[in-house]
Amino acid sequence: MDDGLVVEHRDRTGAVAVYDFRTLPVEDALRRSLARLFAARCVPSRWTSHHSSKYFWLPLQAFTAYLATLDEPVAYIDQLTAGVWQQWRLSRQNTRLGYRQVTAVRGLLLDDPRLSPGTREALARRVLCPRTKEVSFQDAEFDAITSTARRMFRAAHLRITDNARHLAQWRSGVFARGSEAWLLGEALDCLARTGEAPHDTRVRQRGRVLARYARVLGGERPEHTWQRLFLTRMETVALGVLLLAEHGWNLAVINRLKVPQAAPDAGSDGPRIYRVELEKHKRGAGQYFETRNLTDDGAASPGRLITQGLEATVFARAAVHTLSPGTDRLLIWRSAKAPLEVHPQDETGRKSGIGVFGLGISGLTAKSWATQQGFSSSPFRRGRRTVNTLHRRAPGQNSQDTHDRVYTLTDPQVRQRAIPVIAEAAEAVVTQAHATVLAAELRKGADPADYPTATADCHDYDNSPYPGPGGGCGASFLMCLACPNARIHPAHHSRLAHLHHALDNLRTAVEPGQWQRQWEDGHARLEHLKGQLGTAVWTRALADVTDTDRELIDLLFNGDLDP
Predict the structure, then answer these.
(1) Using N-to-C axis directions, what is the helix angle for 180-194 and 304-323, rounded to 10°?
(2) What is the greatest pairwise CA distance in the chain?
(3) 6 has which bridge partners?
(4) ∠ Cα 24 28 29 (to 5°)
(5) pLDDT tens digits for 312-325?
(6) What span, in angstroms and rounded, lies between the C-alpha atoms of 114 and 79?
(7) What is the pLDDT at residue 281?
(8) Is 4 exposed, middle or buried (0-12, 13-18, 19+ CB in 10 A)?
(9) pLDDT in tens, 96-138
(10) CA dist., res. 167 & res. 104, Å (int)
(11) What DSSP state is assigned to residue 479?
């Protein structure tokens, strides 16, 4: 920090970003206080990427610009009052930008111990995150996006692999020297090594593909020359869309994908297993990286797209490695311009190109791809929401809480699809709550050790699930059918069939409410028993009803039987 007002932030790659607090429209004392708070975070244990420091710098600029408009400007940090802070909060729009401005500035200010208790309390109050307006794609729209991307990348992959085979044959000496196939192979070899087709070096013809090579290549346009071995920028976006659709990764992760490392499984002929490193810089220091193992063991396997991506970028990656050794990015494309103008494509300050080659996918490029293909918006943000909430139904580089709170619960399609599921579950709960199932066990014959009752035999009277005040069983005989200790065998069938018939008759003789309270559950259990025994057995049981059966059932109805 120079003079206390210029802060340098060195990220984990060694790149330096400079923040000049002298440009903030407040007094020097406040500038120095803010600079110290800012510098305290520009350390490896806090901010390891320029994205983090820029994330806080821009809200600081907005905050100090607001302070400069006050009738009584804040000159020192301990002059910041709860009222001023509340006015600043209210001046921000209820948008993601407004939320970011308030929370970022609050995070910095709370690090300063000189804040008054009242101001600190005001800063600590919860800031509601605005509702997201971003929603998942409709099925038809997302299918159209992925189909377009698949068609575009498949054509590029076939083109590059076809030319790669021709180049491999040339390098192995298959073609006769000087033949058309040999000349094409020589042109491809030059393309692979330099990124350019063999061209004329004479001043007046500089940049033109030599005539003999232009003839075998089919022309001098990009589709005739460098596109034979390299992806275009838009084809790289198509590959990124397919990675999104397959794995639910966001654009920042896809943009930074390193070259996956492959290891054969159980020998050289086994499936290829790729170790994919995923970087998400927003996670915080030391939490950026995850690894996934993706296996390519067939066309539909999760690792097949990785194999195809490696094949489609193999020559671009080799050429970039020659120009800048150590570059390990997966998504590399060839630009139509030579050399490529290098601009930071994201807030990390990383290069977007090396020579004629571009690295990764920028947000602007993704929007351009969508516009060119006739889609209304970039496929990545909404596409990630679509994949993780509707297809995978699992978090993608998020905690379960964030996945539920930010993505699932706020998405209209998720809520709409949940309606029939919730309704079905609620109906099942109600049905189960009202269901009275037969718990008694059906037997082929009586067990001499069981205790006979009016409706069934009891297998364990002393350990009833319905114990009486003095021990034993306190349930009524109608409840026997709901007890797992009860045993029903053919000797009970006629009696229970007669009880079922009597309850049907009773339904018409008493008030509906009384019948439901006293007899409906028992009737339902007998219906369950009737279904289990079958119509033939039940009809025969009704025909076999004895006087003893009738007498027992009469006593049961009259309450003259003791449990």
Answers:
(1) 70
(2) 122
(3) 2, 20
(4) 120
(5) 999 999 999 988 88
(6) 9
(7) 57
(8) middle
(9) 888 899 999 999 999 999 999 999 999 888 888 777 677 878 8
(10) 54
(11) G
Task: Report which DSSP code applies to 357.
Answer: E
Name residues whose C-beta falls within 8 Å of residue 256's C-beta, 6 or more positions apart in sequence: 279, 329, 360
What is the pTM for the complete model shown?
0.64
Helices (H), 333-440: 363-372, 379-386, 400-402, 412-434
Q: Are 24 and 31 in contact (CB under 8 A)?
A: yes
Tokens describing residue 118 = 């009242």
Q: Give the Cα separation of 174 and 547 in Å (integer).
A: 103
Q: How big is the CA angle at 526 (ends 523 and 527), to the nearest 5 degrees?
A: 85
Which residue in this structure is represented by tokens 């997966």? 330
Rounded CA separation 232/372 (Å) = 14
Question: Which residue, 533, 502, 536, 48, is CA-closest to 282?
Answer: 48
DSSP 3-state of 117: helix
Which residue shows structure tokens 């600043």? 88
Angle between helices 363-372 and 233-247 (to 10 degrees): 100
DSSP secondary structure string, 308-319? HHHHHHHHHHHH
Instruction: Specify the 3-state DSSP secondary structure of 17.
Output: strand
Structure tokens that stand for 313 in this block? 């970028």
Task: Write the single-letter amino acid at 528.
Answer: H
Phi–psi pair at 506, nearest 5 degrees: -65, -30
Instruction: With beta carbons less than 8 A apart as the criterion, state whether 244 and 379 touch.
Output: yes
Cis, peptide link before residue 339, omega less than 30° from 0: yes
d(CA 219, CA 377) in angstroms, rounded, equals 35
DSSP letters, 317-342, are HHHHHHHSTT--BS-EEE-SSSSPPP
